[in-house]
């Protein structure tokens, strides 16, 4: 399914300013200002000045929080976004209630306790983000994420993403029977999205102890599977079979 741009100039605007460039500018700004996020339940709150506010909005990280402060804008980051900014882009630090900076292992333990199946979901999120897809929550479509090739103001989301794993107790029991596929595909078709299943597999059989640490991500690989409904009309030959002579 081709990208569905919003307006005639949308594609040209996206090409003129790639998402990778916008994300790099945000990364540089956050490093320069030594930005810190604050753990708050199942999210992370981060304050941004005027320039960073624009970059956050353009890079599609977090959601703005309405406050009465005039010179500071707060953003609410989901756990996957916050961990990605902290550990992959290394542009923010995250503190707890005691105002002490959390290391990667402490963050991993905290986030894994707050969100079911966090390791699998984070691996799926980071896999797409490192490929410069804009990744947003997909709960309104019954999936884990939706992926855009650029800012949602310029293009409609292209993929509805579900992260799966064969591991026991992974907390994701969807797409186990044909009826799950049928319902999900019908929903994706009704909103003009392609179903992308990211199957997360652990490559190391002797690294069970690593599953409770952030370094366990290094032991997982991602297999991309695009699932589509079979359309018999599109599969038929254009020519008709000649009738046999009597």
UniProtKB/TrEMBL annotation:
Residues 119-202 form the tRNA intron endonuclease catalytic domain. Residues 36-108 form the tRNA intron endonuclease N-terminal domain. GO terms for biological process: tRNA processing; tRNA-type intron splice site recognition and cleavage. One of its GO terms (molecular function) is tRNA-intron lyase activity. Coiled coil: none annotated. It comes from the Eukaryota. It catalyses: pretRNA = a 3'-half-tRNA molecule with a 5'-OH end + a 5'-half-tRNA molecule with a 2',3'-cyclic phosphate end + an intron with a 2',3'-cyclic phosphate and a 5'-hydroxyl terminus. Pfam families: tRNA_int_endo (PF01974), tRNA_int_endo_N (PF02778). Its EC number is 4.6.1.16. GO terms for cellular component: cytoplasm; tRNA-intron endonuclease complex. Belongs to the tRNA-intron endonuclease family. This is tRNA-intron lyase. It comes from Erythranthe guttata (Yellow monkey flower).
């Amino acid at each position: 399914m081709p990208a569905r741009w919003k307006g005639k100039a949308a594609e040209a605007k996206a090409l003129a300013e790639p998402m990778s460039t916008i994300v790099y500018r945000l990364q540089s700004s956050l490093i320069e200002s030594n930005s810190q996020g604050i753990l708050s339940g199942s999210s992370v709150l981060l304050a941004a000045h005027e320039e960073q506010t624009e970059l956050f909005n353009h890079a599609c990280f977090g959601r703005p929080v309405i406050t009465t402060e005039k010179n500071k804008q707060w953003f609410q980051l989901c756990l996957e976004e916050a961990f990605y900014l902290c550990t992959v882009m290394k542009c923010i630090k995250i503190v707890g209630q005691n105002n002490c900076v959390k290391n990667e292992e402490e963050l991993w333990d905290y986030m894994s306790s707050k969100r079911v199946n966090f390791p699998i979901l984070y691996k799926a999120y980071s896999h797409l983000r490192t490929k410069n897809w804009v990744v947003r929550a997909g709960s309104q479509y019954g999936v884990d994420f939706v992926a855009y090739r650029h800012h949602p103001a310029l293009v409609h989301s292209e993929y509805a993403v579900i992260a799966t794993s064969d591991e026991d107790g992974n907390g994701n029991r969807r797409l186990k029977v044909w009826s799950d596929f049928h319902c999900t595909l019908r929903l994706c078709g009704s909103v003009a999205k392609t179903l992308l299943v990211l199957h997360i597999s652990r490559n190391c059989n002797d690294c069970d102890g690593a599953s409770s640490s952030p370094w366990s991500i290094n032991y997982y690989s991602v297999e991309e599977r695009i699932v589509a409904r079979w359309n018999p009309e599109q599969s038929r030959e254009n020519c008709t079979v000649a009738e046999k002579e009597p």
